[in-house]
Amino acid sequence: MKTAKRATLLVAILILLITGANCLVITNENQYSLIRQFGKIDHVVDRAGVSFKVPFIQSVDTLPKETLLYDLSSSDVITSDKKTMICNSYILWHITDPLLFAQTLSSSIGSAESRLDTVVYNSTKNVISSTTQDEVISGRGGTLSDAIIASIGNTLDQYGIELLSFEIKQLDLPGDNKAAVYERMISERDNIAATYTAEGSSEAQIIRNTTDKEVTVMLSEAEKEAEILIAEGEAEYMRILSEAYGDESKAEFYSFVRSLDALKASMTGSNKTVILSPDSPIAEIFYGR
Fold first, then answer.
1. For residues 286 and 256, is the Cβ–Cβ distance under 8 A?
2. Three-state DSSP class for 157?
3. What is the domain count for the chain?
4. In sequence order, what are the residues at sequence separation of 6 or more whose Cβ sits closer than 8 angstroms to the Cβ of residue 186?
5. Under a CB-based contact definition with an 8 Å cutoff, are residues 79 and 136 in contact?
6. DSSP state of 39
7. Rounded to an integer, what distance in angstroms lies between the CA atom of residue 74 and that of residue 91?
8. Where are the alpha helices (DSSP H) in the chain?
């Protein structure tokens, strides 16, 4: 009898423990707890801690509260100038309304990622299709990402989802188009460089021509001034000579000096012997007239 009572007591305690454990709901900091009753969501617990539910009637599902990363599949997009590009990107998102998320996406993270993939791809395609390839390449940073997020807008609100960030990991050309595009870009840069070189050469030639003209004018004026100074110097020289040898005695001395200069000029080479005839004007200087 005592054994039966002990067994009954143990069973009762076990049932109480199971029932008590089934009443507890433990919600962590990084999750939402969805309390379901007969398959439908009765209420949502969004604060960390311990709460209670009706045992055996209500059940618990959890959804992540933290920021989630989803790596989108690489996809082809076409620019406004009909150039194909390959976009490889990822997004950061989180659940803002767990009840709406559960109702529209059946609490499935996989379904949410599939919906995100479709929405983000369509927005990416729309933004890039209205942009040229050069604009896409130059705006692969914040400008392009911001435009795609703006295009998505509040589309995801209907699922209880918020898109936090859209980042492009790689925005590249298909392999068969890379070489042609690179060649075109190199050619464009070469044309720009040639234009700058031609403009620089033209400016340099203008500067050289202006400088040469200024130098020519300056040389011409300098030569003119030099000729004037030379003429004035010669005139002054002749005036001084005229004054110095104006009388007869000075004129005779001047004639003597000039004769010596002429004799000196005639003595060239190593032979310094001069033979003069008696009637030579130079000989008259030494013999007297």
1. no
2. helix
3. 4
4. none
5. yes
6. T
7. 13
8. 2-23, 98-105, 109-129, 133-138, 142-152, 175-244, 248-266, 281-287
User: Which residue is listed with tokens 């311990």?
Assistant: 50
Give Cα separations from 81 to 75, 78, 125, 129 (angstroms): 18, 8, 13, 8
Rg (CA), the chain: 55
Instruction: Look up residue 124 and give its amino acid.
Output: T
pLDDT higher than threshold 90 for residue 115: yes
Distance CA 234, CA 28 (A): 115
Do 78 and 150 belong to one domain? yes
Quote the domain boundaries for residue 283.
Answer: 247-287
Structure tokens of 144? Answer: 């392009």
Tell me phi and psi for residue 245, to 5 degrees: -115, 35
Express each pLDDT in 241-280 by its tens digit: 677 666 666 666 666 677 777 767 766 666 667 676 666 6
DSSP 174: -
Q: Which residue has the higher pLDDT, 276 or 18?
A: 276
CA atoms of 203 and 182, how far apart (whole Å): 31
Pairing of strands 58-64, 31-37: antiparallel
- For the chain, what's the residue count? 289
Q: Are residues 276 and 221 part of one domain?
A: no
